[in-house]
Structures are given as structure tokens and as C-alpha cells.
TrEMBL record:
Species assigned in the record: Mesobacillus boroniphilus JCM 21738
Residue stretches making up the Molybdopterin oxidoreductase domain: 5-338
Main location: periplasm
Positions of transmembrane segments: none
Keywords: 4Fe-4S, Iron, Iron-sulfur, Metal-binding, Oxidoreductase, Periplasm, Selenocysteine, Signal
Protein name: Formate dehydrogenase O alpha subunit
GO cellular component: periplasmic space
This protein's record includes keyword Metal-binding: yes
Keyword Signal part of the UniProt annotation: yes
MF terms (GO), sorted A to Z: 4 iron, 4 sulfur cluster binding; electron transfer activity; formate dehydrogenase (cytochrome-c-553) activity; formate dehydrogenase (NAD+) activity; molybdenum ion binding; molybdopterin cofactor binding
Length: 742
């Protein structure tokens, strides 16, 4: 960012706290946590009202022209089709009008009153500047400066990117927060261009790779939805019928799924068992983080594996999560060293070991420097990392730990015939003998094979649904082709044009660096701007060429069917300003956070009406009168994630030696708190001790004449702060993992 600034670029920082990034920004605006949609909704309205949109891009490359059926309505915070009893929407009420062939009806003039464009304009007209800042608490001058600066990127030859972290997604409206980013970027024409897009700043070097490979409970590798216990998913045919769209590249989902099953079950994946589909578990549980620990707490789970995670420090309800662990029969913690989670049962951790029946196994794992393998960054670049040093002590790489576990588990079930045994025995595990699997065989399995020839595939376009191809993850197919080496090891740092460095590492899919890059050129195939050129149509060669891999078949001419559809993954091929498939609405709408001390100014719906509310002790709600202060959480470079690594590093521990709470000078004065005072911060879920950091980085927000304070910390929401004047120092024995940070 600072390099871009040196070349004339502008940095806009929007954050509840004046951060180190804010100090480098050209424009800074504060906002109250949980008001992102109001903030972005106002910017969308600003762009529309001031005609600061890339109109041709919007008309041609988004669904702005689509006509929505008369069933669609929006009243007082609710979209049509809402069922209060189930807290769910009937999304058929949000459908598009279609012609006799099933294609959406369009009005490219964008004037039809039920066009997406006009419905969007009406929806966000409520987000005028004064209404927005009354909710966000942003100073009006700062807010207008943000809108003016960022919306200027709609001009031909300019582009702007939005970078966000977990402050956007970890909300009851997290999906719609990102949707709001998508809408403004589509209106400004910033998707598919260099310097554009929406970029998640991951908290760890391989978060992108871990989600690609099914870190999330409801997905299989490559973002293929996991089957569930619904009747339609009982068979492979039923799953494919329900989950495969009629258009867009996801229409190939059956090929991705069958090829993945062939990679997992090998010769045991046959037509008789639907290529192994019958081996897949099909549950009905929502095992997202809180639900998972709630299930442990209620005794519904007997055991758990925790790889490199420390929920007793980092969980959203850490105290209850610690109790939940005590309900398990067994726990396997795989980590670099003992953490608060693996030691939750110990007396020094505040537990009574005699009352805890959980058998805990701690498996020492190798750090990233002590093993080899790939990581994928936020740009989807899969980069191989070679081992720097040998692992310490008895620690092993995760791949080795999993390899040994599976081989031993398969051995235990070898002579059994139960349902569980059939699944485990069917698993094809062919990565070499002994404790050390051949990582090259794992990489090749991910890439995939033509099973009729035994050769490695050259890309996901070769995948089939008839059992003749395999691929552990379709989006990575092509990184290890038959004729070449592991392309994630590529290290040619010469710019191949447009800053794309096509010979450095491998970017999924197909080594493409900019997704939806068809949108970088106008409908005729000519770049919108020569200095922002990515790909273009070469009439003499009858194909697309340029500085990147075209994000579609390169011989599809602009005049061909689909030749002007950049968003190939979406049914219809255009960007979704209106999203009729999301659970909580086709347009983003501001709702207050679950424990907000502020009433919703936009409707009578206080919280997201479609959000899943977890009942019971795992989701205790703080009363706004008792807990009137807003808390935001964040990381600092010296203290990362749950601190498992940083708190065991003596130099970093010296730099950030204590848990602290940042607060404004005004709040400190109200509470009689001085800098470095020892204080207690409380929520409905517990108390935490910390040191006060009185700072100018926070300011109270004035909203409709009401002062709302906000503090910054590492782990709670609705809170109150009080001065307790402690005389004893906090327990900060980092090497022993006793940091007082529940």
C-alpha cells in the first residue's frame, strides 16, 4: 500500500480505532463496530445519487438490468417471504422474471421500476449521509471524504481495492457485509481489473489454503457443499440434481465431486456405491464453532481432535468452551507445545483434575519451518515451502501425524464389517510405507489423474463424472501436470506483464491471477484502459490474449454466446447486485449486533431476522443497560491470534507483556481510570483482568445526541469497565502458558 501511495495512490482507512494503517492513510474515518452495512450502504447511495458509477460495466456485466417478479417487497427491515416461526425466508419470492426459454428478462436502459438497478436505488436511498452517520458515529466531513475518494475509482483508467479482515466477516451479518463490498465494487467497475477486487487479509499464511481444502464444516474440498441428511442427498443422483445449477461453471459440480471421491476411495469407488458417495457421512448438525462446543457441553460428542487451535483463549465463549472440553471422553491436541486448551484439566489452570474425566493426548507438532509443503495466500497463490531445520524433539509434521493415525485406525478396523468399518476400510491410503508419507504422491493426488492412462491431468477441464478421472481438489487440478514439475515450486520473479508474475508459484484456478478478468475489457473485447489492460480480444488470431490467463475459454469471441459474461461461476454469467440465493436477503440491510446498546434506526428489526440464535448458556446476552460499552477486538503484530506462538517467544512477550484494554480519554475520565491501571472488563459471559491503555486512538461516538463509548481488546462484545485498583501483578508466565486471558 505504501508503494502505491508513493505512485499517487490513496489509502482510505475505516476502523473503530486509529490504527498504524490509519496513520499512513490519506483519509481516515471511524465507525462504531457492527455498522459496516450502514457505512457501505451510504456509499452505495452516494455513488448512485452522484452518478459515480461505471454505467456500461453495470449494464453489461451485472444483473442490474434483470427484472424482479412482483412478489418481491421490502418493508420495515424484512424482505418478502419471511417466516417468523422458523426465522427463514421463502427465497422463491425474490425470483427474476423469465422468458419462454427460462432466461431472465432484462432492461438494459436500467429504467424499469422492477429492474434490479431501480430496486437497489430505492433500497439504499434510505441510507442518506445524515442517517448513516447517526448510526455509525462517523464525523460527517470524514464520511463524505471517504465516499468522494473511493467512488472516484469508477473513472476509466482507475481502480480501487477493498481489503478487509475478520472485522468484516465475524458478525451476525458477516455475509452481507462482504456483499455490500461486492455491490460498491461492481457499481464502480472494480472487479476483474488490476488493483481492484475485494481482498481478505488473512490472519495466517495458509488460511486461504485451509478453506480451499475444507476447513469449514459445511464444505468439501474446492467449495463443494457437503451432503446432509435431507432426502434429496440420500443418493448421488439426488445430490447432483438439487445442488448443481443449470448454468455457470458450477454446472460441472458432478465432475468435481465424483473425481474427488475417486481420489479418496480409489478402486473402492465403484458405480455400485455411487463412486463412494455412500461412504460420505450425511448429518443434520450445524457444527460451526459455537455449536460444536455446545454439542460437547451437552454430551453429544465423545471426543475431539484440535489441530493448532486454542479455544480456551481464542473462543467466543472461552469459559464455557473450557467446561465443554471436560465433558469429552478424550481429547487429542496437536500443537507446537502445551496450550491453555491442552492443559485445561490441570489444577494450575483453575480446574479440579479429580472431577474431569477427559483423557487428553498432546501430540507435538512441527512448526512451519520444520516441515515442507505448500501454503496458499489471499491471492490464491499456492507456494511450496522447503524445510529449513529438522523438527525438535519428537515433534512431527501434521502430514506425518495424520498418516500415522489413519494407518493405525485402518488397522484397527481391518477385520470389522460395521458401517463405520466399511467407510474406513474403503479409504484409499497409498502414500508410501512407514511413518513418512511421500508428499509428492499427496500433491499428485490433489492434481488428479486420467485413470484410463494413469497420467496426471493438465487441468480441471479434463475432469469427468464417469469415474475415469480423479482429483483431490478440482480448483488445484493443473498445478502438477504430467509434462512438468510441481508448479507451486516455480520461482521466476520476472513480471510477465501487469504485475502478474505468472511463473512465480501457481495460482488456482489454471494459474489465473485475476478472477473474472473478462470484465477488464469492454463488451467488444477492448481494454477499458490501456494502462489497466489485462486481457483483450485479438481478432487476427481469433482468441483472447494478454497478461493473464483468460477466465473462460480463450476462443469465445465477444460476439459469441456468453462472450460478454465475465462472472463464469454464477448462473447467468454476470455479477450479482441482487442475490436471490442468500439466506438473509438479496440486498444488504443494516441490523444491530446481538448485544448492541443502540436501537436500530433503519427498522424495527433489531438483529438479523435470519441469523441462527443459539439458545442457552453458550449464548448469554448482555443487557445494554448493564453493559453499555461497545467492544471491538483485534490483533497486534506483537500478539497474534490466541498467542500460542507469540506468547512463547520471549522478545515478543517483552514487547507486549500484558493483556490491555484501549479506551478513550473521555471514558477513562468518566470511570476514574488512569493509564496502566489494573481493571476488570465484564460481559454476560465472564470477566477479564487487564491493564488500561488510555489513548487518543479511540473517541466516543455521538449518535442522535447519545454518547456511546467503545474500547478495543482481544475478546468480548457487550461490556462494562470498572476500576478495581489491583495491587498484585497479572500472571504473565508466558513460557508456562499461564497468561490470564480467558
Amino acid at each position: 500500500m505504501t508503494k502505491a501511495k508513493e505512485k499517487g495512490g490513496k489509502i482510505v482507512s475505516v476502523d473503530p480505532r486509529f490504527t498504524r494503517t490509519s496513520s499512513k492513510a490519506d483519509v481516515y474515518a471511524s465507525l462504531r463496530s457492527g455498522t459496516d452495512i450502514a457505512f457501505m450502504g451510504g456509499m452505495i447511495n452516494y455513488a448512485l445519487e452522484n452518478n459515480l458509477i461505471h454505467r456500461e460495466y453495470v449494464a453489461e456485466y451485472t444483473n442490474a438490468s434483470f427484472i424482479v417478479k412482483k412478489d418481491f417487497e421490502f418493508n420495515d427491515g424484512l424482505f418478502s417471504g419471511y417466516d417468523e416461526a422458523t426465522r427463514k425466508y421463502d427465497k422463491t419470492k425474490w425470483a427474476f422474471e423469465t422468458d419462454e426459454e427460462g432466461n431472465p428478462k432484462k432492461d438494459k436502459t436500467l429504467t424499469h421500476p422492477r429492474s434490479v438497478f431501480q430496486l437497489m436505488r430505492k433500497h439504499f436511498s434510505r441510507y442518506d449521509v445524515d442517517s448513516v452517520i447517526a448510526v455509525t458515529g462517523t464525523p460527517k466531513e470524514d464520511y463524505l471524504k471517504v465516499c468522494e475518494t473511493f467512488c472516484s475509482t469508477s473513472k476509466i483508467g482507475k481502480s480501487g481495492t477493498i481489503m478487509y479482515a475478520m472485522g468484516t466477516t465475524q458478525h451476525t451479518v458477516g455475509t452481507q457485509n462482504v456483499r455490500a463490498f461486492g455491490i460498491i465494487q461492481l457499481l464502480l467497475g472494480n472487479i476483474g481489473l488490476p488493483g481492484g477486487g475485494i481482498n481478505a487479509m488473512r490472519g495466517e499464511s495458509n488460511v486461504q489454503g485451509s478453506t480451499d481444502f475444507a476447513l469449514l464444516y459445511h464444505l468439501l474440498p474446492g467449495y463443494v457443499g457437503a451432503p446432509t441428511a435431507i432426502p434429496e442427498h440420500a443418493t448421488l443422483e439426488g445430490y447432483n440434481t438439487k445442488e448443481t445449477p443449470s448454468g455457470g461453471y458450477w454446472s460441472n459440480k458432478p465432475k468435481f465431486l465424483v473425481s474427488m471421491l475417486k481420489a479418496w476411495y480409489g478402486p473402492n469407488a465403484t458405480k455400485d456405491n455411487e463412486f463412494g458417495y455412500q461412504y460420505l457421512p450425511k448429518g443434520n448438525k450445524n457444527y460451526s464453532h459455537i455449536n460444536l462446543f455446545n454439542a460437547m457441553y451437552k454430551g453429544e460428542l465423545e471426543g475431539a481432535f484440535l489441530f493448532g487451535t486454542n479455544p480456551v483463549v481464542g473462543g467466543p465463549n472461552a469459559g464455557k468452551e473450557k467446561e465443554a472440553l471436560s465433558k469429552l471422553k478424550w481429547l487429542v491436541a496437536v500443537d507446537l507445545w502445551e496450550t491453555e486448551t491442552s492443559a485445561f484439566w490441570q489444577e494450575e489452570a483453575g480446574s479440579d483434575p479429580s472431577k474431569i474425566g477427559t483423557e487428553v493426548f498432546l501430540l507435538p507438532a512441527a512448526s512451519s519451518y520444520e516441515k515442507e509443503g505448500s501454503v496458499s495466500n489471499s491471492s490464491r497463490w499456492m507456494q511450496y515451502r522447503w524445510k529449513a531445520i529438522d523438527p525438535k524433539g519428537e515433534s512431527l509434521a501434521d502430514l506425518e501425524i495424520i498418516h500415522m493415525l489413519v494407518k493405525n485406525i485402518k488397522g484397527l478396523y481391518k477385520n470389522e464389517s460395521s458401517a463405520a468399518a466399511k467407510q474406513i476400510n474403503a479409504l484409499y491410503w497409498n502414500y508410501g510405507e512407514g511413518h513418512h508419507p511421500d508428499i509428492d504422491l499427496v500433491a499428485k493426488e490433489i492434481n488428479g489423474y486420467d485413470l484410463t492412462t494413469g497420467q496426471l491431468l493438465k487441468g480441471f477441464g479434463d475432469l469427468k463424472d464417469d469415474g475415469t478421472t480423479s482429483s483431490g481438489n478440482w480448483i488445484y487440478s493443473g498445478f502438477y501436470p504430467e509434462e512438468g514439475k510441481n508448479r507451486s515450486k516455480n520461482r521466476d520473479n520476472k513480471d510477465t506483464g501487469g504485475g502478474n508474475f505468472l511463473n512465480w508459484a501457481y495460482a488456482w484456478p489454471a494459474n489465473r491471477r485475476i478472477l473474472y478478468n473478462r470484465a477488464s475489457a469492454d463488451p467488444s473485447g477492448k481494454p477499458w484502459s490501456d494502462k489497466k489492460a489485462v486481457i483483450w480480444w485479438d481478432e487476427s488470431q481469433k482468441k483472447w490474449t494478454g497478461n493473464d490467463i483468460p477466465d473462460f475459454k480463450p476462443t469465445v469471441a465477444p460476439a459469441d454466446a456468453g462472450g460478454t459474461n465475465p462472472f463464469i461461476m454464477i448462473n447467468g454469467g454476470v455479477g450479482g447486485l441482487f442475490a436471490p440465493t442468500l439466506n438473509d436477503g438479496p440486498f444488504p440491510e443494516h441490523y444491530e449486533p446481538f448485544e448492541s446498546p443502540v436501537k436500530n434506526a433503519f427498522s424495527s428489526q433489531e438483529i438479523n431476522p435470519a441469523v441462527v440464535i443459539i439458545e442457552g448458556e453458550f449464548n448469554l446476552k448482555g443487557d445494554s443497560k448493564k453493559y453499555p460499552i461497545v467492544g471491538t477486538t483485534y490483533r497486534v503484530s506483537e500478539h497474534w491470534q490466541s498467542g500460542s506462538m507469540t506468547r512463547n517467544q520471549e522478545w515478543l512477550s517483552e514487547l507486549a507483556g500484558h493483556m490491555y484494554i484501549e479506551m478513550s480519554e473521555e471514558l477513562a475520565k468518566e470511570k476514574g481510570i488512569k493509564n496502566k491501571d489494573k481493571i476488570i472488563v465484564s460481559s454476560a459471559r465472564g470477566d477479564i483482568k487487564a491493564y488500561a491503555m488510555v489513548t487518543k486512538r479511540f473517541k466516543p461516538h455521538m449518535m442522535n445526541g447519545k454518547k456511546v463509548h467503545q474500547v478495543g481488546m482481544l475478546g468480548t462484545l457487550a461490556i462494562k469497565v470498572r476500576n478495581r485498583g489491583y495491587s498484585k501483578p497479572l500472571n504473565t508466565s508466558y513460557r508456562g502458558c499461564k497468561h490470564d486471558n480467558p
